[in-house]
Amino acid sequence: MVNTNTASKKSNKAPNIKAALSIATSALLGTSVLTAGVSQAEEADEWQFDSAFLLYSETDRVSATEAIIAGTKVFDNDEILSLKLTVDALTGASANGAVVQPNAQTFTRPSGSGQYVTPAGETPLDDTFRDTSVQLNGQWTQPLSDNITGSVGGHFSKEYDYLSLGVNGNLAYDFNKKNSTFSMGLSYFQDTFTPEGGIPKPHSSMLVGDSSSPEWDGEFAKTRTGKSDDKSTADILLGFTQVINRRMITAFNYSYSMVDGYLTDPFKVVSVLNRNGLAQDYIYESRPDSRVKQSTFMQAKYHFDDSLLNTVADVSYRYMWDDWGINSHTIDTRFTMPVGAASYIEPHIRYYQQGAADFYQPYIIEEQAPLGFVSADYRIGEMTAVTVGAKYGVSLNDGDELSFRLEYYRQTPTNAGFTELSALKGQDIYPVVEAIIAQVSYSF
After folding, report:
1. Disulfide engineering: 79 pairs with which of 142, 218, 226, 377, CB 3.0-4.6 Å?
2. Angle (CA) 249 253 256, round 5°
3. Would you say 98 and 107 are in contact if contact means Cβ atoms under 8 Å apart?
4. CB neighbours (10 Å) of residue 41?
5. Residues 117-139: tens digit of each pLDDT
């Protein structure tokens, strides 16, 4: 796909579709190095910088701030160097997976040191959620022949309990007078988890009691399997881009992803209830150690004529499915509309619908202790989500651009067919998650 979600600061340049496609393929492989303006050719030996500051805030839950600085330089022979630095900080409360109860619940913190209490009728949230990450991405793109463009890149990400290293490469082949392009991309990531408190033993009970007792450390250690674990991810992406006419361009992609290793969330538990629905125990979740994901993606961009104020419509659809039983549909729509001679507004609507994983259960009954995989994480449950908002951008002196984005996000988990027990009647088992997203961007 060609990324033209935001206006380039040098919009009078001719589109460099081949370079843009190569960079966009890297983005779909999870190594995006640009935030805006990649669809336009820049003057050789000049750097273009894109910066952004984003605030994401869920109601009574997680808040995140993100700072991004990305730089792109085009050399005389159409070689492109792209670099990106991202710094994230997350704070707030995160759902631990346990189900809401009509009475107060006590949980042990992931470190094994200290406990917290969730009041009756409230979703259990661990309010000690803290994280800071630094991510670096780099990409080198260059023509290999008149019709072939190659690109290689690297990825580094570090959090206090997580390290990710990755490489990628892709090729783009132009034909049909450069109006058609086939592309293929490969990437590989190696990640290491070192969660606070270690790796929980699947299905083991959360230890709850006096953490100052002499036996505590030994009993807590029995619920752990080690201090760290790894996972690897290999992705392949096949793409086709077609320029229909001077106003319209389309893109079609297929991706295949294989993930192996530790895929369980070490901070999530599952409530074990009696027949009345009252919690008797909390066990650590267990997920498969492999996952195969596939997706198809279709996108069309259309530039309307002057009668519609030069509006650019960008519509995309993505379907994803995997061997965990999850499938999802995503429809994303943007309209970029000029406002006066030097500014634009971009309304945005995104709809997402997801089915539950085969092993998803919001809780389990104590007579039905799990023998296999189980997780109560709402993120792999059945849900719908809607994002609505708009972006406003204005061109400044020397072609610089300043933009503001404000969006509202609403995620609605739903019952995937589980019977509601008596003690849970009237309780909010599937709470709605709402968030505000605000971003300020500056390109220069």
Report:
1. 142
2. 170
3. yes
4. 18
5. 999 999 999 887 788 999 999 99
d(CA 26, CA 36): 14
Backbone torsions φ then ψ of 324, nearest 5 degrees: -90, -5
- Write out the two tokens for 204: 């083991």
Neighbours of 39 (CB within 10 A): 26
Alpha-helical (H) ranges within 145-304 are 216-221
- Selecting from 2.40.10, 3.30.310, 2.40.160, 3.40.50, what CATH number does the domain 17-443 have? 2.40.160
Amino acid identity, position 261: G
Parallel, antiparallel, or unpaired: how do β-strands 364-365 and 269-273 relate? Answer: parallel
Residue ranges per domain, the chain? 17-443
Q: Give pLDDT tens digits for 47-65.
A: 899 999 999 999 889 999 9
Note the pTM of the prediction, 2 decimals.
0.87
If one counts every other C-beta atom within 10 angstroms of the C-beta of residue 332, the result is: 17
Q: How many residues does the chain have?
A: 444
Q: Which residue has the tokens 């419509």?
A: 313
